[in-house]
Structure formats: C-alpha cells, structure tokens
Amino acid sequence: MLTLHCPQAAGIVQAVTVFLYERGCNIEEHHQFDDAYNDVFHLRTSFTADDEIAVAALEREFQEVADRFGMEFAFHAPRRTRILVMVSKAAHCLNDLLFRWRGGTLGGDIVAVVSNHEDLRSMAEATGLPYHVVPVTNDTKPEAEDRLRELIEEYDADLVVLARYMQVLSDELAQELFGRAINIHHSFLPGFKGGRPYQQAYERGVKLIGATAHYVTADLDEGPIIEQEILRVNHAADPRTLATLGQDAEALALSRAVRWHCEHRILIRGRRTVVFT
Q: Which of 78, 189, 223, 261 could bridge 214 with an S-S bond, Cβ 3.0-4.6 Å?
C-alpha cells in the first residue's frame, strides 16, 4: 500500500504506476483526489507483487520519485492493524467492534481492552481478550496514563480506540497518539458537550441526531473528523429514544472510522481528512 500527497503536477500517476510496474507490482485499487482549492494531490494505491518486497527497499527506491514531485509518502506493510480499545461503562460501541472483529470485517485485530471500570470485563473476556482496569482520578491521572503507555507497548498496539471512554486524555498523551487514536463523539461536533447529551438534544427539540468519529487531539473534541452518521427524529422521540438511536449512530460511525484507518484510507491534512472509501 502506498499513500502520498504533494503539490499538483502533471505526471504523478504515471511516475507511480511505472515505478510499481518496473518492480513487478500489480495495482489492485487506486484512489486519487486533486484538491484544486489547496493545489494538493492525494493518492492511495493498493498493490501486490509476485515476489516479497521489503517496505524499506521500496521507500529507499521511491525517494527519487518523491523528490521530483515534492511528495510526502508512506509504504504500508500488509500487517493487520493491532487495536487497543478503551471503554468506561457504556457497552454498545465495544459490543459492535467485537462483533465486527470476530466477523472479520473490522479491518484489524483487537488485542486488548482497557477500562477505568470493571463493568465490561465479562464482555471482553467472553471473546478471549485481556481486560485491564486502570482507575483514573485527578490525583492518579499521570500514573494511569503511564500505565496506558505501558499497555500500548506491551500489546504492540498500532491504534487506540476510545469507545465511549469517559476520561479526557492529557494534552501530552493526545499529542503522542496523534494520528493513531480515534474517539467517538455523541453529536455533530461541537454540540451538546458534557453530561446527558440526549437530554440536551431533547430540550432543544433537535430534528437530527448523530455521531462524529474523529482523531484525538489536545483540543478536546476538535480533532480531524473521519466520519459522521445522522438519523432524523421528530417531536415524539423522548430522551431515552434519542439515546437508543444515538448509540446506533455512534457504533456505526466508529466502526467505519476504525476500518478505514486500518485500511490506510485516511490521509490527515491539517485539521481535515481525505478519506478514500
């Protein structure tokens, strides 16, 4: 897999395809986006080869092409993404991720579940996953985040998924995990922050509810948006109904974001994303 972006110019696609052809590679999937507004070209190309080619060798040999066009690029080895899921007490997102993982449609492998509560231990352990409880208080937050760092390293996790994990990561940890930590928010950002979001939605008489999956940044709930899911509602929906529908939207938006990340379909460009679906 090759992903890249660079200033727009003639000959980019030809240069990439010739490079891969000369090394016996067969392109299986190709996406490109010409961002005329910012004058930037984005590309994702999935390919196979008859002979195993080391990523390091491809990167070294491709550098000449990259220098010619001013590219920022990455070759991705065909390793399945290792996912560490973080939860609190709400079960719907974890349940959906586990279902898709066991069905082979998540795009990566869940390797462990970490929580600040015991509530979801049985759900995780029923699938054979290790479940780690790391309590968090204002006084112990630095130690808890150090423990999280240890678990990420222990399980060699490529991606951290906050599946309704109700603790805010420190600015330092958010910066360390930038581009490899995904959160799910219970509305269109930045609406209805804080507690009881669906009660807030009911009181405001909303006509659409939804969820936003985004990358974690130091700015709370302001990271690059990956996916949003919406549902239309009317005056008859009470807070409980809104919450039930909202959970469906949260699970769906989060699972899509996780799968697209695992398949290297997301390119981060500042505060925005390019998503090749």
A: 223
CA distance 43 to 31: 6
* End position of a domain, from candidates 30, 53, 75: 75
Angle subtended at Cα 170 by Cα 198 and Cα 161, rounded to the nearest 5 degrees? 60
| pTM for this entry | 0.94
Asked if 106 and 31 sit in the same domain, the reply is no
Question: Roughly how many angstroms between the first and final C-alpha of the chain, as a whole number?
Answer: 15
Number of neighbours of residue 244 by Cβ within 10 angstroms: 12
Q: Are 68 and 103 part of one and the same domain?
A: no
Determine the structural domain holding residue 56 and report its residue range. Answer: 2-75
33, 165: one domain? no
Total structural domains within the chain: 2
Mean pLDDT for the chain overall = 94
The answer to whether the beta carbons of residues 236 and 187 sit under 8 Å apart is: no
19 Rama sector, left if φ>0, alpha if ψ -120 to 50, beta otherwise? alpha
Residue showing tokens 């929580």:
115
- Which residues carry out catalysis? 221
Higher pLDDT, 3 or 78: 3
pLDDT digits (tens, 9 = 90+) for 211-254: 999 999 998 889 999 999 999 999 999 999 999 999 999 999 99
Q: Where are the alpha helices (DSSP H) in 4-156?
A: 12-22, 55-69, 92-102, 121-125, 141-154
Given 15, 43, 75, the domain boundary residue is 75
Burial label for 64, CB within 10 Å (0-12, 13-18, 19+), is: exposed
Position 52 pLDDT exceeds 90: no
Shared-domain flag, residues 25 and 94: no
Asked if pLDDT for residue 11 goes beyond 70, the answer is yes
- Among the listed residues 16, 44, 105, the one whose alpha carbon sits nearest the alpha carbon of residue 268: 44
